[in-house]
Amino acid sequence: MVNVFAGNKKKEPTIEPEKQDEKESARETNPEQPLTVIQKLRAEEAQLADEKRNLLIQRDQLQKKIKEQIENSKNNVSKLKSEVDELKAECTELNESLENEVLMQ
Question: What's the pTM value of the predicted model, to 2 decimals?
Answer without folding.
Answer: 0.54
